[in-house]
Every structure is written in structure tokens, then in C-alpha cells.
Amino acid sequence: MSSAIHQLHLLCPITYTLLSLVEMTQNTEKKTDRRHFLKVSSIGTASLAAGGLLGPTTYAGGKPQAATSAALHPTETKLELLFLGTGAANWPKTYPPVNQKLTRGQVRGTSSMLINGHILIDCGYTVVDVMKRYDVNPAGITDILLTHTHADHLHEASILKIANSRDADLGPLKFWGDPEALKKVPDSDRIEKRPVVIGQTFSIDGLGITGLESNHHVADSKEQCMIYLIEGATRSVLYATDGSWLLANTWNTLRKKRLDAIIWDATCGEGAGDPRIFSHNDMSMIRHMNHSLVKGKVLKPDAKIILTHIARKLQPPHAEMEQTLLPEGLIPAYDGMSVVLS
């Protein structure tokens, strides 16, 4: 499959990149079976392109354990983040077929993200269909990180499709999450449940993964909802959805870190007075937290601030979001968008 590459050579990494992104988003997306890349390097060059997927990787990590060398000293030098859904729960539960052309952000699957081609965060009811559109082989998924058990993040049929697509010789699919949340994960000899302890870093294939407390709630459940800090040898990202204001314990962990990217829950848009702010962010909350994270030097000067879990009726159309938010340094994610940190 051929790909068109848009190169950006930056004099001022943040401003120039965002202006170029604004220019690009004025055009209609003509190919929807491709992924779109935002690549950032330490020398300040960036590119947006379309291309193929990383090949499947087998995983040889261990169960959660405190202060292991592999967890505390990650070795992986690249983080590729592929968005396999950027919507809140009020988008349609079925995803358009692969042959239906879509403009960027026209449709959003349930929020999910793939890390380095094989680690999936959340598995809602649209994720398998989104994988088909963006040429992701479910058999290549080795691990799933669960944030919480709302139906748009945990869907039994999707989980079993992924688990059963894997060759038995590869071993079971590793499924990580809060111990109470794991009780809702289907039992199968193709799935190995691995409990995550809040604040305790574990290792998956050269990455350090830490589950942190999220300001979110699942009714009639004792689970602690989570967000995830993903750390490589030189790059790190916080996947912060679902949830609203960062909790104090989470902040106390993050204040010791330096993030290359943060991915915010952006459910509530600009609207004031929406009661969902007690479990999801609006844009003013995101701006306040960004300011504090920059002031505290948690966000690096060229860090990418990305928005996901976008509600269908609380946020404007995607093109309008890009036009208003990109100059502000806020990047609205869309299904199929890939961010490469290397």
C-alpha cells in the first residue's frame, strides 16, 4: 500500500507544527484505510503521513511485581500510539464498513489506543471493526490494559474475538486491570488475568506501565478506575481517560515525571454547567491542568497535548475543533491517528 508523506521541518517546534496541521485539516481525507502519523523527534522535526502497521510482537513480560529492574528501567526507545477509537459512549455502537469513505472525525469508535502495535488500552464494542479499517491484525495483540468496566471500554464479544484470534502457541492474551474490574472480564483459557496495583510499575516488552487513580466511577462496582502512565527508555505518555480532575495521589506521582505527551478525556467540550464534569473533563479543566503541568515541568516544552473520548453532541465537528484548538496547542484525536514518539 502506497502512502503520501507530508514533511515539516521546524524552526519553532510547537507553533510551526500546529500551523501546518491547520493547513492539512482544510483538506478532506481521501483515503480512510490508512493511518495518519504525527511524528516527533528530539531535534524538533515532525511529519504527518499515512503508512503501514508495525508487525505483531510476542510478549515475554512477567506478572506485576514491585520495583523490578525491567519495570523501573524501560528499554524500548519508541512509542507509537494508534487511536482505535476517540469517542465517548454516545456515538453509534456499530462502526461503518471498511468500504465506506469517511472524513476525519466524522465517526468515532469507543475510546481505545494501541501501543507499539500490540498493547491495547480498553476494548469496547467497536474496536474490532476499527482494527479492520486500519489494517490491525487482532492476532498481534498480546496485552490489554483496562481502565474501567463501563460497556464502551469493556465488551466481552470483542475481547473474546481478539483472544481467540491468537495462535495457541503464542500463549494466552494478558489482560491487566484492577482486581475488582477483572472479575467482569470473561473467563477463558485464552485469557490470563493480571491484577494491577495502583502506583506499582510493571513491565511489558521493554515499557514500564503504571496504573494511577482516575477521578471516575462505575456504579455498583468496587473497582478503582485507572489511567495509565507508559514509559519507554526516553519517552513517556499519560493516557488520562476516562476521568476528570487529576487526583492528588496521581499528581504526586506525575510531579516526578517528564511527559512527552498527555491524552486527555475531553468529553464535555466548552459547555459550562454540564454535570458530567464530575467524572469527565471540559475544556476549561484541561486548560487549567495543562497550565499546572507546564508550570510544574511535568509536561516537556514540546509535549503533545491530545484530546480523546470526545462526545458526539458536546463537542463541535472535528474540522471546527481543529481550527479552533490546534493554534492553542491542543490536538483533537481522530480514529486512525498515530502519534510516534522516538
Provide tags for this entry.
342 residues; alpha/beta; Metallo-beta-lactamase, Chain A; ten-stranded mixed β-sheet; seven-stranded mixed β-sheet; 8 helices; 17 strands; 19% helix; 26% strand; globular
Task: Tell me about this structure.
The protein has one domain (5-52, 73-341): 4-Layer Sandwich (Metallo-beta-lactamase, Chain A), CATH 3.60.15.10. The protein is built from eight helices and 17 strands. It has helices at 13-24, 69-72, 127-133, 156-165, 179-182, 248-254, 283-295, 318-325; strands spanning 5-8, 35-40, 46-51, 79-85, 112-115, 119-121, 143-145, 173-177, 191-195, 201-204, 207-213, 226-231, 236-240, 259-265, 299-308, 330-332, 337-341. Strand 15, helix 8 (318-325) and strand 16 (330-332) form a beta-alpha-beta unit.
